[in-house]
Backbone:
C-alpha cells in the first residue's frame, strides 16, 4: 500500500498537537518527509535495519522503566505508548533513506532473524512501515489527547486522506465522499456514546467511593494486618524537609483515624466532614485559626487521585498545595483531589491535635468479641477508676514489656481473637497489635481512645538531605482524650524501626536509594528547571550513534521527478530488461515467465531465473551470479521474428 505524500508528516503533527509536543512533532515530521526532496540514499543492509530496530527497542524499554518509576507500572506502560511516534521514528527514517524504501521483516523480529540464520534460503518479506507508523501516531495521540472534539476530527481527516488516495479510480468521487461521511457520522455517534458511558461509569465509581469516604476516607475500613503487609514493601512514599527542631516534632505523620472495631476491622463512624475553601491564590488551605509554631515541607507520592495527605498532628495550615479540591473530616483526615506523580506542600503546625472531633459514643465502646478479655485485663492492671493520666501511664508501662515482631509464628487458638491472643499468650506483634490493644485497654479504663494510622519519620538520607518515608515506615498508634484534649501515644517498642531496617534493608540499599532519588528528581524536573543542556547531550549521543551506523556506507544518488521522490526498487538495473526490448510484443496480462516461454522456449531460462532472483529475492545475487546474469543477457542474440 502506497500512502499519499505528506500523510506521515501530517500524522506526526496531529500526534504532537494532541499530546502537547508540538515542537518535537515538527522536528520529527521534517525529518521523515525530508527524504522526498533529497537525492542521496544510504546502502543500508538487513543488519543495519536490525541495529536501528534494536536501538528503538532499547529506547522504548527505557521509557517504560523511567515512566513506571515515576508513575507506577500501569501509568508507565500507558504513558510510554504516547511516545511511540518519537521512539519508532528512526525505523521509518532509515527505511526512507535506504535503497528500496522497504524494511526487511527480520529487522523488526529477532525470532525471524534466528530463523534466517538457521535457513539462509528463507525468503524474507520487505515491509513498508509507513502505514503502521501512521496508525501508531493516531493511537498515541489518543493516549495523550485533550479529550475534546479535535481528536476525532483529526483521526477522520487522516483516514479520509489515506483512503481517498486508495479508492478505485472508476468510483464516483461524490459517492465515495457520501459513504465516507456517513461512516464518519456513525463513528462519531459511537465515539460520543463511549465518552458518555465512560463519564457515567466514572460518576458511579466516584459516588460509590464517596459513600465509602463519608464513613472513612482512608479506605472505608482498615484490617489488622494491612500495615504489616504494607511494611513488606520498600517504595518511597514521602520526603520530609525542614529544620531538625521542626522535623523532630513531626515524627508521626497522620493520615486517618478510626473509632469502631468490628471483628478484625477498624472503621471510621459518625465524623464531621467539611469541604475546604482555598485562600487567595488557590494553593493555601486553613484548617484551624491557630497560630503555627513550626513548619515542614513534604513531598508525597500520589497513590490515587483522591489521596490522603500525611500531616503532623497539630497542622493548622497547608501551603503550596496545588489541588482542585480538599476535604477534611473530624477524624483528622485531609483528603485532596490531586494530579501527577508527586505533590509538594508545606505544613504549618503547633502543639496538640488540630481539627479533631470531640469524643463520641464510639470512642469508649469495647467490641463484644474483645470485651471480656480487655475488661479482665483492665481489672488485673487496676485501671478502673484511675485518673486518665495514670491509666495512660499504666497501659504504656504494661505494653512496654511486650516484644515487637512483624510475623505471627502460629495463628490464634480456636475461639480466640488475634488481639486476645496478643495480650494473653504471645505478647509479641507489630504496631497494629500494640495500638489496637492500647485503644481497647484505655476504653476499658474509661478513657476515650482512637486508632490512628500514618507513617513514622525516622530515616534521614544524606544523599537527599531529607527524611525519606518508605512504605515499610507505615505505622499505627493510639490517640487518647486526656484532660479535655487529644494526645498521641505510641505504645510500640522504640526498637521496631531498627529491627525492620535490619530485616528489610537489602545489601544494595545505597544503590537502590540512589536510583529512587534519581527517579524522584526526574519526576520533578519541571520544578527543578533542568537545563536544556541535557537535551543537547541526548541529541549528541543520537548523532554519534547515527555516525557509527552510517560510517562507511555507500551513498546512492538518483534523479527526482518534480517534487516527488521516485522509489528505487531492487533489480531495476538488470540487463534482462535490455534483452526484452528485442523480443516480440508481450500480450496483455501475460506474465514474464509465460511470455519468455512462448517467444523463446528454453533459450533464456538461466537468465530469467537469475533476473527474478535479482529482482525479488531480498538477498539478491552474489558477485559471481550478478556477472553471469550480465553475460547471459548481453551474449544472447535476439530470436527471429
Residues:
Amino acid at each position: 500500500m502506497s500512502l499519499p505524500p505528506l500523510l506521515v508528516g501530517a500524522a506526526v503533527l496531529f500526534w504532537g498537537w494532541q499530546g502537547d509536543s508540538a515542537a518535537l512533532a515538527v522536528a520529527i515530521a521534517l525529518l521523515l518527509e525530508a527524504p522526498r526532496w533529497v537525492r542521496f540514499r544510504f546502502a543500508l543492509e538487513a543488519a543495519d535495519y536490525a541495529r536501528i530496530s534494536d536501538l528503538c527497542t532499547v529506547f522504548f524499554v527505557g521509557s517504560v522503566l523511567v515512566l513506571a518509576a515515576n508513575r507506577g507500572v500501569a501509568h508507565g506502560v500507558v504513558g510510554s505508548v504516547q511516545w511511540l511516534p518519537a521512539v519508532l521514528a528512526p525505523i521509518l527514517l532509515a527505511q526512507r533513506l535506504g535503497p528500496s524504501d522497504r524494511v526487511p521483516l527480520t529487522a523488526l523480529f529477532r525470532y525471524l532473524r534466528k530463523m534466517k540464520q538457521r535457513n539462509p534460503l528463507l525468503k524474507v518479506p520487505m515491509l513498508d512501515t509507513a502505514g503502521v507508523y501512521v496508525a501508531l501516531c493516531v493511537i498515541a495521540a489518543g493516549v495523550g489527547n485533550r479529550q475534546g472534539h479535535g481528536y476525532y476530527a483529526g483521526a477522520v481527516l487522516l483516514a479520509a486522506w489515506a483512503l481517498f488516495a486508495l479508492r478505485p479510480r472508476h468510483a464516483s468521487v461524490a459517492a465515495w465522499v457520501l459513504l465516507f461521511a456517513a461512516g464518519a457520522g456513525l463513528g462519531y455517534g459511537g465515539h460520543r456514546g463511549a465518552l458518555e458511558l465512560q463519564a457515567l461509569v466514572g460518576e458511579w465509581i466516584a459516588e460509590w467511593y464517596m459513600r465509602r469516604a463519608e464513613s472513612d476516607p482512608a479506605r472505608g475500613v482498615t484490617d489488622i494486618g494491612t500495615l504489616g503487609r504494607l511494611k513488606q514493601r520498600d517504595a518511597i512514599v514521602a520526603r520530609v524537609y525542614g529544620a531538625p527542631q521542626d522535623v523532630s516534632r513531626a515524627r508521626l505523620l497522620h493520615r486517618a483515624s478510626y473509632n469502631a472495631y468490628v471483628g478484625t476491622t477498624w472503621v471510621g463512624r459518625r465524623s464531621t466532614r467539611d469541604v475546604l475553601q482555598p485562600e487567595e491564590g488557590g494553593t493555601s488551605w486553613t484548617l484551624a485559626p491557630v497560630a503555627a509554631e513550626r513548619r515542614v515541607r513534604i513531598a508525597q507520592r500520589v497513590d490515587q487521585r483522591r489521596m490522603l495527605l500525611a500531616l503532623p498532628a497539630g497542622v493548622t495550615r497547608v501551603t503550596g498545595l496545588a489541588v482542585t479540591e480538599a476535604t477534611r473530616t473530624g477524624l483528622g483526615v485531609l483528603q485532596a483531589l490531586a494530579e501527577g506523580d508527586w505533590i509538594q506542600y508545606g505544613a504549618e503546625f503547633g502543639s496538640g491535635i488540630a481539627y479533631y472531633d470531640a469524643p463520641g459514643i464510639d470512642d469508649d465502646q469495647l467490641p463484644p468479641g474483645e470485651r471480656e478479655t480487655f475488661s479482665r485485663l483492665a481489672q488485673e492492671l487496676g485501671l478502673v477508676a484511675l485518673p486518665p493520666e495514670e491509666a495512660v501511664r499504666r497501659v504504656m508501662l504494661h505494653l512496654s514489656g511486650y516484644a515487637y515482631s512483624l510475623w505471627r509464628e502460629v495463628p490464634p487458638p480456636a475461639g480466640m481473637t488475634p488481639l486476645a491472643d496478643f495480650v494473653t499468650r504471645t505478647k509479641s506483634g507489630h504496631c497494629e497489635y500494640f495500638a489496637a490493644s492500647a485503644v481497647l485497654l484505655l476504653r476499658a479504663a474509661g478513657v476515650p481512645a482512637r486508632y490512628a494510622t500514618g507513617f513514622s519519620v525516622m530515616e534521614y538520607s544524606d544523599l537527599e538531605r531529607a527524611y525519606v518515608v518508605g512504605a515499610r515506615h507505615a505505622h499505627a498508634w493510639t490517640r487518647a482524650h486526656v484532660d479535655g484534649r487529644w494526645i498521641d501515644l505510641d505504645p510500640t517498642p522504640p526498637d521496631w524501626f531498627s529491627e525492620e531496617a535490619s530485616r528489610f534493608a537489602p545489601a544494595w540499599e545505597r544503590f537502590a536509594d540512589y536510583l529512587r532519588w534519581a527517579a524522584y528528581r526526574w519526576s520533578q524536573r519541571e520544578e527543578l528547571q533542568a537545563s536544556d543542556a541535557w537535551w543537547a547531550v541526548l541529541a549528541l549521543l543520537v548523532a554519534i550513534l547515527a555516525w557509527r551506523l552510517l560510517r562507511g556506507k555507500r551513498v546512492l544518488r538518483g534523479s527526482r521527478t518534480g517534487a516527488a521522490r521516485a522509489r528505487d526498487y531492487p533489480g531495476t538495473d538488470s540487463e534482462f530488461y535490455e534483452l526484452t526490448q528485442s523480443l516480440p510484443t508481450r500480450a496483455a496480462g501475460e506474465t514474464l515467465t509465460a511470455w519468455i516461454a512462448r517467444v523463446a522456449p528454453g533459450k533464456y531460462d538461466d537468465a530469467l531465473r537469475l533476473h527474478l532472483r535479482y529482482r525479488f529475492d531480498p538477498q539478491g545475487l552474489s558477485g559471481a551470479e550478478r556477472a553471469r546474469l550480465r553475460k547471459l543477457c548481453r551474449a544472447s542474440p535476439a530470436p527471429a521474428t
In short: The radius of gyration is 36 Å. The chain has 23 helices and 24 strands. The CA atoms of residues 364 and 448 lie 5 Å apart.
